[in-house]
Amino acid sequence: MIFTLTLAAALLGFANEVLGASLSASLSSSASLAPQVGVLEFSNFGYSGTYNMVLELKDPTSSSCTCKVDSTPNAFSGINAPLNEEVSVHFRGPLTLSKFAVYTASDFVVGTNGSGSWNRLAYYDASSQTSDNVTFLTTAGDDSPCLGKALTFADSDGTSKASESTVLAKNAKLTSNQEFSIFSDIKCGSSGLGKDCGVYREGIPAFHGFYGAVKMFTFEFTMPTESSASSSISNYNMPAIWLLNAHIPRTAQYSDNVNCSCWRSGCGEFDIFEVKNGTTEPNHLYATIHDYQGTGEIETGLQVPGYIARDTSNTMRGGVVFDSNGDAVVWMSLSTAFDSSIAASNVNGWIGSSGSKQVNQLLSVKAKSSALSKKSGGAVVSANSLTHQIVVAVLGVVAWIL
Ligand SMILES: *[C@@H]1O[C@H](CO)[C@@H](O)[C@H](O)[C@H]1NC(C)=O
Ligand SMILES: *[C@@H]1O[C@H](CO)[C@@H](O)[C@H](O)[C@H]1NC(C)=O
Ligand SMILES: *[C@@H]1O[C@H](CO)[C@@H](O)[C@H](O)[C@H]1NC(C)=O
Ligand SMILES: *[C@@H]1O[C@H](CO)[C@@H](O)[C@H](O)[C@H]1NC(C)=O
């Protein structure tokens, strides 16, 4: 019974990723059949592709505002690409963040204890109010029909506007649909194509994201069930923690215009712990990649067919690691730590103590050019590779059951 249900969910999940939105109805009704696990893994993450950098953001606060992207595609390649580029870290309520750390390593392989150790690049600890190489931003600035609200420094509550970089207060709580983000404390140079941060929205506090192809993020947080916001609010009771290519929020995080950020053309998003349906699955945390590695449907993205439990009454600890082999692994374990240096064996121990694992083995693709309109571009997925992916899915499920 478990086998049949799990297999059906896995097949629907993978088919949905490859074939796109046409199957989303059947997926959402069966999504709860995905198994609960402690580890969600994407293997073979990273491909050679392109995306389009923003070239111009014109008259943002006017009703006639426009955006343009560079017509020369920006190429990327390598393990974990395009998220081998700098990323920013995003949080949505209901959520309280109590610890956060970012690490890089020269070499680390999930499951191999002798591989390189980790150096901490950035650290936030709410109880001691320590904040190293961390800038809290939020979208509390001027609104724009094209770009949405501008980034500002976040005040200690995480959501009000501050005039300078401010440490998030202990117990600062995001309610449903409220967000803040974390960047490094390295300021961007001037805005412009080819400059260190590319083009960004005028007037924002513009900071670099966190660099490195091999990197790791650890979190200590709570995601209590929503108790104050109105249930009519969007993203009601749908907390999330995710990474964006840092170019995206510096131009426009939420825009319908495909030319206002590099998101649509595939510069990358990685959802680490995300509630995807606050009604049917409020306590299931999914991991999703939004790019074009083996899919043309960037909105749906690529999901691991399994979820991690959201504990609504206790503190959770977990993280995501992008290793030297292109394995991106999300785990949840109270053994997760935040020390300034961490041995490979510790990380493997956290992952090992998290419980069973579900894997989405991503296709090896060479995308020609990425999409500027919803259905064009992206990688072309042949019947062969679809079969391959389903076979891999079946093997993965069998392995999980054994
Ligand atoms: C802070 O993070 C940035 C971006 O990843 C990095 O370049 C810089 O070296 C970090 N600073 C410290 C002191 O580690
Ligand atoms: C985005 O830019 C492309 C290429 O310049 C253009 O063809 C398209 O119409 C633009 N789309 C929007 C919504 O502005
Ligand atoms: C949640 O699932 C229900 C039932 O499938 C569906 O009607 C609803 O639209 C979903 N909500 C979201 C936000 O996807
Ligand atoms: C790596 O170290 C961890 C923590 O000590 C241990 O749990 C795990 O079994 C080790 N893995 C291997 C492959 O030796």
Strand content: 25-35%
Distance between the termini: 14 Å
How many β-strand runs? 24
Q: Could you tell me the radius of gyration in angstroms?
A: 20 Å
Bound molecules: 2-acetamido-2-deoxy-beta-D-glucopyranose
What is the average of the pLDDT values? 86
Largest sheet: number of strands, sense, barrel closure: 10 strands, mixed
Give the helix tally: 5
Q: Could you say which structural class the secondary elements and strand pairing correspond to?
A: alpha+beta
* Helical content (DSSP H or I, runs of 4+): 10-25%
Provide the low-confidence segments as ranges: 1-31, 368-402
What's the short version?
Helices cover 14% and strands 30% of the residues. The protein is α+β, with helices and mostly antiparallel strands and 402 residues long.
Task: List the main descriptive attributes of the protein structure presented here.
alpha+beta; 24 strands; 5 helices; single chain; binds 2-acetamido-2-deoxy-beta-D-glucopyranose; 402 residues; globular; 10-stranded mixed β-sheet
